[in-house]
Amino acid sequence: MNKQQTRIIVIMLAIALALAAFVMLRDRAQPAGDEHDEHAEQGEHAEDKEAAHADEGVIHFTPNQITVAGITVATAGPKHLDTFIRMPGQIALNEDRTAHVTPRAAGSVRDVSADLGQQVRKDQVLASIASADIAGQRGALTAAQKRVDYARRNVATERTLWEEKITARQDLLKAEQELVEAEVARDTVRQQLQALGAAGGGGSGGSNLLAIRAPFDGIIVEKHITLGEVVGADTRVFTLTDLSTVWADVVVPARDLDIVRVGTTAVIRSIASDTTAPGKVSFVSSLVGEASRSAKARVVLANPGAAWRPGLAVNVDIVTGSSDVPVAVAREAIQTVDTRQVVYKRVKEGFIAQPVSTGRADGRFIEITAGLNPGDTYAASGSFTIKAEQGKGEASHEH
C-alpha cells in the first residue's frame, strides 16, 4: 500500500467518525426536544382542563338577563322564624257585630232609604212602615196622657177643698193615688213605643209611621224589603254588620287540639293574594265532629279598609314556637335537583347550584344549616327560571 492510498483511508475514517458523532448528537438532542414539546402540550391541556373546571357548573346569566327574567337576588343572613302548623280556614262575619234588623211591628212599607252595600251610621233611618199597631199604641199614649192631666187637676182641686176644710183628707189622698196610677199607665205605654222604636207622643200627622233605624255603625250586607210590601214584626228586612273586625273560622284536627288554645298567636294568609295579618285564637270548640274528627276554632282579625271579605278562603298558621337562626333564605329560593335541595348562589358569570341542608321554616323563610354562609347572595324569587336553564345546559352536554 503506497502513501496515497493510506491517506485516502485515513480521510474516509475521519469522515465516518464525524458522521457517527453527528448522528449520536442528533439522537441525544431529539428526545429532549420531544420531551419539551410533550410537556408544553401537557401544560396546555392542564390549562384547558383548569379553565373547563372553573366554568363547570356555572349557569350563565348576564345582569340584563337576570332583570328580564324577573330574578330577585337576596343576601343570606340571620332571621327570626316562627314555627307553625297550617290549617284551612275561611273569613266570616263577626257575629258579635252583626244584626238582623226587623221592624218589630207589622205594617206596610212606606219608604226605603238604605241600599245594599251602603255604609250607615247608628240611628240612621233605613226604612219606614205604616203600622196599625203603632197607631194603636200612640192612641193609647194620648189617652193615658189625658188621664194624667185630669188626675193632676183633680188633685189640685181636692187639695184646695181640704185646705178650706170642705172635704176630708182621705179624698185628697185618693186623688193623689189616682194621679200616680195614671202616670204609671202613661209611662208604660211610652216605654212600649220606645221598645218598638217609635218613641214620642201621639198626634194626628204621621202617628202610624214606624222608622226602622240602624242599631250601630256598619254596612248593609243583606236587604229584604221593597216599597209597598207588607212585612211582619219579625221579618228580617236588613242584615247589618260592622266589618272593622271579622272572624277567621279554622278547622282544627283532633290531634292538634292540645296546641290550639285560646290566646295562641296566629297568622292569617290569603290564598288569593300575598295578604297576611296577625291575630289571636279567641275560641276553640269543646265538641269534635263525629265525621270530620275535627273541631272549630276562631281567630278575631282586625279589618282596616274591609280588605278581608267574608267567604274568602285562607290559611291559618298557628304559631307553635319562635327562634333566631344564623342563616336563612327565602322559601322560594329552595329548588330540588336530582333529589337534592339546592340554592342558586350568585357568582360573577351567573349562578351555581349550591347543595344545602335545611332546618326550621316559617311561611316566608327557611333555615340553612349547611351550604351557605351569612352574606352569600342567592336567587330568591325566579329561581325556577335558573333551574330550567340548568336543565337545558345538561341536555345539550348529553348530546
From TrEMBL:
Q: Does the keyword Cytoplasm apply?
A: no
The identity of this protein, by name, is Cobalt-zinc-cadmium efflux system membrane fusion protein
Which SUPFAM superfamilies does the entry link to?
Answer: HlyD-like secretion proteins
Organism from which the protein derives: Massilia aurea
Q: Which Pfam families does its entry note? A: Beta-barrel_RND_2 (PF25954), BSH_CzcB (PF25973), CzcB_C (PF25975), HH_CzcB (PF25893)
What's in the keyword line of the UniProt record? Cobalt, Coiled coil, Membrane, Transmembrane, Transmembrane helix, Transport
Task: Please list the GO terms describing molecular function.
Answer: transition metal ion binding; transmembrane transporter activity
Q: Where is the CzcB-like alpha-helical hairpin domain?
A: 137-195
InterPro entries the record matches: Beta-barrel_RND_2, BSH_CzcB-like, CzcB_C, HH_CzcB-like, MFP_Cation_Efflux, RND_pump_MFP
Q: What is one GO cellular-component annotation here?
A: outer membrane-bounded periplasmic space
Q: Which example biological process does GO assign this protein?
A: plasma membrane copper ion transport
Source organism phylogeny: Bacteria, Pseudomonadati, Pseudomonadota, Betaproteobacteria, Burkholderiales
Give residue ranges for domain CzcB-like C-terminal circularly permuted SH3-like: 327-387
- Tell me the ranges covered by the CusB-like beta-barrel domain, including all copies: 245-319
What family does this chain come from, according to its entry?
Belongs to the membrane fusion protein (MFP) (TC 8.A.1) family.
Residue ranges spanning the membrane: these are: 7-25
Q: Record's PANTHER family?
A: CATION EFFLUX SYSTEM PROTEIN CUSB (PTHR30097), SLR6042 PROTEIN (PTHR30097:SF4)
Domain CzcB-like barrel-sandwich hybrid spans what residues? Answer: 97-242
Q: Which residues form a coiled coil?
A: 165-192
